[in-house]
Structure formats: structure tokens, C-alpha cells
Amino acid sequence: KTLDDLTDIAGKRVLVRVDLNVPVKDGQVTDTTRIERVAPTILELSEKGAKVILLAHFGRPKGEPVADMSLKAIAPAVEEILDQRVHFAADCIGDKAANAIADMNDGDVLLLENTRFHEGEEKNDPALVTALAANGDIYVNDAFSAAHRAHASTEGLAQHLPAYAGRTMQAELEALEKGLGNPKRPVVAIVGGAKVSTKIDLLQNLVKKVDALVIGGGMANTFLAAQGIDVGKSLCEHDLAETAKSIIAAAEVAGCAIVLPEDGVIAREFKAGADNEVVDIKAIPADAMVLDVGPKSVAAINDWISRAETLVWNGPLGAFEIAPFDRATVAAAKHAAARTRTGSLVSVAGGGDTVAALNHAEVADDFTYVSTAGGAFLEWMEGKPLPGVDILRQQK
Ligand code: 3PG
């Protein structure tokens, strides 16, 4: 059920779970993307005359109030993006919340304090769920990026109140369905990032679902080393050689092509502008490390992107934060963006570093969908159930 199913809500108290877990430096929100994503839901409910009560977590305060994890600091950024006054209550339950809600007029927006200041949040404690539910008539979840958590404000509340998906949740699920649910084939996945150990489940699931799996970033070294290639001083999890081999074997059985680097950009130190050169992947000097995939590999990856109807992307191909090791990621991202613009590719990307990498390549807006979710996007790509989504789907 979506907001389209929510009519006649003037005067109703709508509890809206949003993700305001945004980066903050010196008290300022440095990336407002997540706030921008939830603004349409908040404004739509407010325009329909609902009393819009925002629930969110911020950081990992371990069940008790922590001053620098107060959502009060985020309220001005929300206010600016909504271009509407945002009231604040210093607790998400109890008298402080109840009094603030009693003062609301129809269409008002109220932000409640960090749900994780109560230990019942992460435990999905029925007592906290009941206390939260007392503040609302309707529940809307617009926080896909927190939907992998079975918490009181993400899963518990949906069992207690009539529950609906917000606009961002809806858009996210539609995009993900196009990406891996029922995609147009061939489907190509690009998985990069530093370590295999954080992405074993992901790789094991993808080889069963996609036609080609491009492995880049530091994690490619573990696969190369497992095949007997000397990766010099490169980041490499040698203890995962057997895991890498089993993923390659599973891919063969499933008919999924594994695309590993043929060449690499090497350097002796990891710093901007470090002396670097391109070498064949079988000729990495013992004292050098691979910091990006090389031009031959980029050509092969772009060839796969050209053949794909659907692309799912998680993780950069190289150490993109430091030039010139951003070249492969930027080149592949630009190629995928160009094909998406012509309507011949559905491109879905997600995960913290991936969003930063696509922003760096200045193509994030050209992708079909860029998810702001980190862990939730990964767990979805791993084929794991997302409790916050599943409970919404169960609504009659
Ligand atoms: C995120 O930032 O990925 C979400 O807000 C979830 O945060 P968590 O990993 O602390 O649960």
C-alpha cells in the first residue's frame, strides 16, 4: 500500500519513519541527499492536512541519550529542504512527545528525538512499539535504507498501525525490482570495494542471478591471487582463496561470466599523484600495489556494459578517492550513464562508496536509480529478507 491509498487524512496523526542518518561535520549536515529523498512524502502528507510526525534514528547511541546524536541538530536542515517549519520534541515517547503532538495543527511537521535513545528500539520491544503507536493513527515507512533492521520504528510499528510505503520507499522498491527482481537480460553486476570478506554473501547470490559479474577494486586481488597470480603488495585477503575459488566454480555452474582485471594501475605508495604505471595483471612487481584496474580491463568492462540491458553496481573499481586511481570507475560510470540516457540500459547503483563514486564521476543523476541505502542495499543484493519491507508487503 502506498500514499495513493491514503485519502481523508486531514487531522490524522501520521507517524513517518524516515532516514535522517546523514553525515554531519562541525554541526552542519554535509550531504542532504537522504533528507531530499524523503521530502516529497512529508510534503504530500502535510498538504493533505495530516499531522506529520517524523521518527528517525541518528548514529548508534546504544539505547541511551547521547548529546551529539540528537536529531535536534538535523532539524534546521530538514526545515530548509521542506521550506516549512519543523517542530521538535526532545523524546519520541512519553509526555514530551504527547505534548508536542497535542500542540500540532493540521499540516504541521514535528520531528521526534532519536528513536535509538531507547534500548527497546533495536530490540523491537513491544513496550516501546506500544508507546510509539500511541502517538499515531497511521504509519508510513519511507526509510528503505533502514529496512534491513527489524526495529520498533521500522518493523514493530507496521504491525500495530495501518502501514503504508512512502514515496521514496515505493520508488526504491520499483527500481530494485527492475534491477534484480524481474530484470531485462543480459544483467551485468559490477562489484568492487576493498574486501571480499564483507561481500561473500553478495557474490554468492549474484553469480546465481546475473549473466556477468565484474569484480574490481581491492577485492579483485583476492580472486587473482587464488588463481596463482602474484599481486605484490596489493591489498589481498589470502585466507579467502578457497572462498574465491568456490565463487568462481559456482559461477561456472550457473553460466555466469566472471570478469577479472587483465591489467592494473600500480604504484609504490598510496597517495594523490603517486608515480604510477599500467602493467599486465600477471606482471605486478613484488614491491608495487594495484590501485585501479587498467585500460584493457576498462575496455572489457565497458564492452559488457554495452551488451547489458540491466546493470547493478556496488563498489568502486579502484581507489577512486585519490587521483589518478579514479580513472576506471569514472570511465565505466560515464559509459553506463551514456547508455542509460539513450534508454538502452536500466542502471541501478547503491551502497555508500558507490554513491560517492558516481557523484565523483558526475553521473549519479543519469543512472536509472541510485539508492542512498548502504547496508539495506547490500542485503537486498544478497537476496536476504528486509524486515521493514516484508511487513509492509503483508498489509492487506
Ligand atoms: C544507514 O546509514 O545505512 C542506515 O541509516 C542504517 O544505519 P545503521 O547501520 O546504524 O542501522
What topology does this entry show?
Elements (H helix, E strand, L loop, with lengths): L12 E5 L6 E2 L2 E2 L3 H15 L3 E5 L19 H8 L3 E4 L4 H9 L6 E4 L7 H4 L2 H8 L4 E4 L10 H9 L2 E3 L1 H15 L5 E5 L8 H10 L2 E4 L3 H8 L14 H14 L2 E3 L3 E5 L8 E5 L8 E5 L1 H13 L2 E5 L12 H15 L4 E4 L2 H9 L8 E2 L4 H7 L5 H7 L3
Parallel strand pairs: 1-4, 1-7, 4-6, 5-6, 7-8, 9-10, 9-15, 10-11, 15-16, 16-17
Antiparallel strand pairs: 2-3, 12-13, 12-14
The site of 3-phosphoglyceric acid has 8 residues, from loops.
Subunit structure: Monomer.
InterPro entries: Phosphoglycerate_kinase, Phosphoglycerate_kinase_CS, Phosphoglycerate_kinase_N, Phosphoglycerate_kinase_sf
Catalytic activity: (2R)-3-phosphoglycerate + ATP = (2R)-3-phospho-glyceroyl phosphate + ADP
Give a written overview of the molecule:
Monomer. GO terms for molecular function: ADP binding; ATP binding; phosphoglycerate kinase activity. The protein contains 15 helices and 17 strands. With 396 residues, it is of the alpha/beta class. The strands form four sheets. It has a six-stranded parallel β-sheet, with helices on both faces. A six-stranded parallel β-sheet has the order 11-10-9-15-16-17, sandwiched between helices. Strands 13-12-14 form a three-stranded antiparallel β-sheet. It is elongated. 3-phosphoglyceric acid binds next to loops.
